[in-house]
Amino acid sequence: xxxxxxxxxxxxxxxxxxxxxxxxxxxxxxxxxxxxxxxxxxxxxxxxxxxxxxxxxxxxxxxxxxxxxxxxxxxxxxxxxxxxxxxxxxxxxxxxxxxxxxxxxxxxxxxxxxxxxxxxxxxxxxxxxxxxxxxxxxxxxxxxxxxxxxxxxxxxxxxxxxxxxxxxxxxxxxxxxxxxxxxxxxxxxxxxxxxxxxxxxxxxxxxxxxxxxxxxxxxxxxxxxxxxxxxxxxxxxxxxxxxxxxxxxxxxxxxxxxxxxxxxxxxxxxxxxxxxxxxxxxxxxxxxxxxxxxxx
Length: 296
Hints:
Helix content is 72%, strand content 1%.
């Protein structure tokens, strides 16, 4: 028979986690909802606005809707496009007959563990209009005109998308490789006996069985893509240029940080965060619905 102190001992040992979670997790989340309903700055009185911050962001704010559009474009061509490269790469690298497979896996994964600031600085040199080697190849090898990668609004988004793809394709490749190794190889052997080609085997075996992994990887890409900040922030040189010419590199997370920590409008920044949360939740739900439908 356990005495009272022995009964409470497990809860006592678990209590530090719950206390820290409540103080640094639940409380800030709840407090941010409160702040989003106010005109909240570092100095000066706090003015209650209700849903005014949300309405202004979605209707009259000069930057937010444009930052959402930029975020969606980079999500499609940066975060989601990489899966069309990662799955074939995972299939290729999972082939046991591939020589040097471990070295290739390491090379593809290295960009993910490299500092995003370092990556952005390297790419800023690569995209330099006058001295970047990318323009050097375009001009001297292909005979084309130099591209203003960091000055032309259309090229700015392309530059960020290229950088995001380069960094995260390897990460998704490793995730898909883990999924591939859980597929029973006898299924491929049976399909091969039935005369199925390599492409048909992957279309009818690999992709259907990878759908739970695809859902997981795409969900991570949605969350990461909607929170994209570091790459455009460093590439566009911080808060001063606000995403470069025509704010072409201004993502919603970029605008959130600028609103809160550069303009000191924490109520508005909190409202941006909750709008992004609702969008991410909705897109993840759509991803789940599509995945469930494909699995039937």
